[in-house]
Specification:
mainly alpha, 9 helices, 62% helix, 223 residues
């Protein structure tokens, strides 16, 4: 038996006795006044009723040294405990909920993604959203097509090789930051050396990033 159950077992019967006696005392405090129409209760009458209730509670007090206010608190405590037992879990902190901001709904356009890629040319820290990664991938494909056409015209595969070398490091950097956006380490990029790993990386590049900050930095869409 827990402490709360033991306390309720000892004092709940006393509360029942107290309620019965109060129900008997209160109507008899002023029967003549209640029977007389138009007769209003005075302050002295209400004070007399309160004194009668105090005497009743004093008779039920098992420990005469307990003050009247403390005894009233003890008699009401079991009911409060029984109500509190229904709430086993405290309400979550509203401050923490407010701090967890939802994932931003804005995305980068094509120009912003290309500018971000060159501005973070060899930046392997931080995060990159899906639009930043896929617009950069589209830009790399377009550059490869244009340079391939140019090489076919001049007859020397020079521009395609130079463009590939120029876009290699920022492409790796944005791929690493894209993995950071889904809270994964950039070393997962080594999966690209396997056939199945390429499929996994493409899937991860399509996954929505974590809302709010993670261990790699703040949400790029919330900045």
């Amino acid at each position: 038996m827990t402490l709360t159950q033991d306390f309720k077992t000892q004092y709940t019967p006393l509360r029942g006795r107290l309620r019965v006696i109060l129900d008997r005392v209160e109507p008899t405090a002023g029967p003549a006044m209640s029977a007389m129409p138009g007769k209003r209760r005075t302050t002295a009458d209400m004070r007399s009723d309160a004194m009668g209730q105090r005497r009743t509670l004093a008779l039920l007090n098992p420990l005469g040294s307990i003050p009247f206010a403390a005894w009233q608190l003890l008699t009401a405590l079991p009911g409060q405990l029984s109500q509190a037992r229904g709430c086993r879990y405290a309400a979550p902190s509203t401050k923490k909920i407010e701090d967890r901001k939802p994932r931003g709904t804005t995305t980068m356009n094509f120009g912003q993604a290309i500018s971000s890629g060159f501005n973070n040319y060899v930046n392997f820290s931080g995060r990159a959203c899906r639009s930043a990664f896929w617009y950069w991938a589209l830009f790399a494909v377009l550059v490869a097509i244009v340079t391939q056409i140019a090489d076919s015209i001049i007859g020397v595969p020079a521009t395609n090789i130079l463009a590939g070398l120029g876009l290699l490091l920022p492409g790796i950097a944005v791929s690493v930051r894209r993995l950071h956006d889904i809270d994964r380490t950039g070393w997962w990029l080594l999966l690209g050396f396997t056939i199945i790993g390429v499929i996994v990386l493409i899937y991860w590049d399509c996954v929505k990033g974590t809302g709010g900050p993670n261990r790699y930095g703040p949400d790029p869409l919330a900045l």
